[in-house]
Structures are given as structure tokens and as C-alpha cells.
Design a protein that fits this description.
Keywords: Lipid metabolism, Methyltransferase, S-adenosyl-L-methionine, Transferase. Helices cover about 45% and strands about 15% of the residues. The protein is an alpha/beta fold. The chain has a seven-stranded mixed beta sheet. Strands 2-1-3-4 form a four-stranded mixed beta sheet.
């Protein structure tokens, strides 16, 4: 009888309608597939049962997180090769029901069932979000979602993010290949945001989704502003407050565990929202934009730094990525940049500048993955193996998505103009005075 690897290659080819572009090594030690390609390691039959009970991305994600599936070789190459068959089949891809009308596909499914063994659905890995009932993006549900992602241990985030402790796209004026460092690039990003906001001594800045305090500290230390930073993460807030105290900035920086919807002590001269708006949700986005508009004084500036997806022909068909929703950012949603600009304008803002820094995020993510992989043993001590595998996969896959222009990231500068229409901005905005 043929080994499990050859049987899997044949069955997957029948199911996908194309050759599998990676090599397979199965639990019985057999191997098959292109000899020079990365190897998809199927450690046990349970991986097949996960795919059968949850066909598609969620089944693959569960098998990966549980350690039933692995990759031997370059992870980026493996993901790139598999993307066209698994993650990019597109809006015109065959549905499962339609595919099962094909006799060859039905035969392949029966073959997988036989190869998988006893038909018991494996329990999801413990890292998967357990969802309750209720509406999305209430204050309570947002607190739970933020806690799932951010309250996994500050030591783990230090390992991944490095000393800057900035969890958003860096700004690489000097690429790493030419001697640039992640810390330099993150500092330059914070300075870029500060210059776009026109920060100057005596002003008040609201940092929405302040993370571990890096933007608040930079703005206060380098530009002399008073800062209120808000986060829903208790662990982030505790870490940020200690950093603020260590910098001697407690008289100028206040870190709150607070929902942005509850901030009521405006007006502020400027608002930074860096990597936070992805958590807001489409149904709440106008409320988000309106709240920030309310909190600014006349002439106040908003810098909204946000990941964007490509628009769909039918926007009503958009659904959140299953792996990301279940393991990374529960309830997170991405919108096209045009939608974001429209909602900001509906709230009353004048949008003055949009800058895409998509390639910068790919460079940032690759550095985070390298940090994680270089100290994998420590990561496994700090979090569960499943959690470490989640972070490695999502960051590597995201790096490729930014490189291939499947998603982007943009800095949107918007202004609450005065009654007379004044923006306070120079005629040539990119001078950032």
C-alpha cells in the first residue's frame, strides 16, 4: 500500500483541483511532492479530522495551533505557495456544496475520511476564542477582545516587539539591509506622527489605544505636550505607567484604563489613533469618528493610522478572516481606505493627507517574526506553545499579505477646521510644520 504522504498528495489534488505545491511528510514517515519545496508536516491523523470537521481556513488553523500541522523549511515560501489554493481562491471560488457535486471530489473526501480514522471531532485548541452571545463592539465585548489579544504577558511582547514596545507599523527610513534597526524605525514612526500632528509645548494630546505608552512618552518627552493615553488592557496600562514613571513624566502623561467612548475631558489639540481603529468595527466606525471629532478643539488634528483591505466587488459579502477572528483579533474588521476617509468626513473632519506605508509593515512584521523565532524557547516559557504558534503564523502571513498588496496600512491626517474654515496647516502639507 502507498504511504500516507502519497495518498494525501493525491487526495488534496483531487479536492483542490490543482497539484499541491509543497512537499508532504506524514505521520508514518513517508514523503511525497516536489523535492525542493518546503515540507508540510502532517504529524498525526487528527490533523485530517480537523480539516474534515471544519473544512477550510479554520480547520487548518486549528491543526496548526494544536501542533498537528507544521512546516519544515521556509515558512514564508510555504505560505506563499499555498496562498493561491487556500487563502486566495477569491470571490468566484467553488463553494463546498458545489464542489461536492463533483464525483472526484466526493471520492477524495471519502478517501480522507478513511485515512483520518475514527470520526470524532477534535476539541478546538484552548487558544481559540470562546464566544458568548450578544452584539459585537459593545464596551464589554471590546474589553474581552482586547484582553484576549493584549493580556498575554508583557514579557512575551517585549520578546517580539523589542525595546521600543510599539505594536504597529514602523517607518523604515533606513532598511534593515542597510543598517537600520527596528528601534530606529519605530522611533521615526512616532516622530512622523508627532510632526503630522504639529505637536508643540503646552498642547494636549489624546492617544487612543495607547498600548504600552510609547507614543505618549515620545510626545511628552520630545515635544513637551501633556498626554492622556487610554487602553482597555490592564496589563498594558500597568506597563505604560511604570515606563512613564521611569522617564520622570508623571506630571505630563496620564495612562487610563478607559474606553475611548467614555473620554469626556476635551477639548484636545491633537489625537493619535495608531493601530486601534481596526478594533472598532464597521457598525461603530461613524460613532468612533464622531467621538474623536467631539474631543478636538477647533483646528485640532487627528492622525488615524489603520490597516486597510482591498475593496470587494460586493461589499456585503465581506467576512472576517476566520483564523484572525478566532485566534488573533476577535471581532476585528478591516475596511477599504476609501470607506475610512468617507466616515471621517461624515463625522465632520476635513481629510488633508493620506499616506500609504504598506511596504514598511512587511519589513516590520518580518523583524517581529525573526525576534520570535530567534528566542523560540523563551517564548514557549512565556506563553503556551499554541499561542506562540498563533503569533508566528499570523505575523508571517501578514507580512506576505502586505508585500503582495492584499492589505495595506495608511496614515490619514484629518482636521477639525475652525468655523471660518481654517485648518492651521501649511500650503504644502508634507512639510509637516
Amino acid at each position: 500500500m502507498a504511504g500516507a504522504a502519497l495518498r494525501l498528495q493525491n487526495l488534496f489534488e483531487q479536492l483542490l483541483g490543482a497539484p499541491l505545491p509543497v512537499r508532504i511528510r506524514a505521520w508514518d514517515g513517508s514523503q511525497d511532492g516536489p523535492p525542493d519545496a518546503p515540507t508540510l508536516v502532517v504529524r498525526n491523523r487528527r490533523a485530517l479530522r480537523r480539516l474534515l470537521f471544519k473544512p477550510g481556513e479554520l480547520g487548518l488553523a486549528r491543526a496548526w495551533v494544536a501542533g498537528d500541522l507544521d512546516v519544515d523549511g521556509d515558512l514564508y515560501t510555504a505560505l506563499d505557495l499555498m496562498a493561491g489554493l487556500v487563502w486566495e481562491r477569491g470571490e468566484d471560488a467553488r463553494t463546498l456544496a458545489g464542489a461536492l457535486r463533483d464525483p472526484e471530489v466526493r471520492a477524495a473526501v471519502r478517501g480522507l475520511v478513511k485515512l483520518a480514522g475514527p470520526p470524532l471531532p477534535p476539541a478546538p485548541p484552548p487558544e481559540e476564542v470562546r464566544r458568548g452571545r450578544g452584539h459585537l463592539h459593545t464596551k464589554r465585548s471590546d474589553r474581552r477582545a482586547i484582553s484576549h489579544h493584549y493580556d498575554v504577558g508583557n514579557d512575551f511582547y517585549e520578546l517580539v516587539l523589542g525595546s521600543s514596545m510599539v505594536y504597529s507599523c514602523a517607518y523604515w527610513q533606513v532598511p534593515e539591509s542597510e543598517g537600520g534597526t527596528l528601534e530606529d524605525a519605530q522611533r521615526d514612526k512616532l516622530e512622523l506622527v508627532s510632526r503630522k500632528l504639529g505637536l508643540s509645548p503646552g498642547q494636549r494630546l489624546l492617544d487612543v489605544g495607547c498600548g504600552w505608552g510609547s507614543m505618549a512618552i515620545h510626545a511628552a518627552r520630545e515635544h513637551g505636550v501633556s498626554v492622556v493615553g487610554v487602553t482597555l488592557s490592564q496589563e498594558q496600562a500597568a506597563y505604560a505607567r511604570k515606563r512613564v514613571a521611569d522617564e520622570g513624566l508623571t506630571d505630563r502623561v496620564e495612562i487610563r484604563v478607559q474606553d475611548y467612548r467614555d473620554v469626556a475631558d476635551g477639548p484636545y489639540d491633537a489625537i493619535s489613533s495608531i493601530g486601534m481603529a481596526e478594533h472598532v468595527g464597521a457598525e461603530r466606525y461613524l460613532e468612533y469618528a464622531t467621538d474623536l471629532y467631539r474631543l478636538l478643539g477647533p483646528g485640532g488634528r487627528l492622525l488615524n493610522h489603520q490597516i486597510a483591505r482591498r475593496p470587494r466587488r460586493d461589499e456585503s459579502a465581506y467576512s472576517v478572516d476566520e483564523f484572525i477572528d478566532a485566534y488573533v483579533f476577535p471581532d476585528g474588521e478591516l475596511a477599504p481606505i476609501g470607506t475610512t476617509v468617507t466616515q471621517l468626513e461624515r463625522a465632520g473632519f476635513e481629510v488633508r493627507d493620506v499616506e500609504s506605508i504598506r511596504e514598511h509593515y512587511a519589513l516590520t512584521l518580518r523583524r517581529w517574526v525573526a525576534n520570535l523565532e530567534s528566542d523560540w524557547a523563551t517564548a514557549l516559557r512565556l506563553v503556551s506553545p499554541g499561542r506562540a504558534r498563533v503569533w508566528r503564523l499570523y505575523m508571517a502571513a501578514s507580512a506576505l499579505a502586505f508585500e503582495r498588496n492584499r492589505i495595506g496600512v495608511n496614515q490619514v491626517l484629518a482636521v477639525k477646521t475652525t468655523e471660518a474654515g481654517g485648518s492651521g496647516l501649511p500650503l504644502r502639507t508634507r512639510t509637516w510644520n
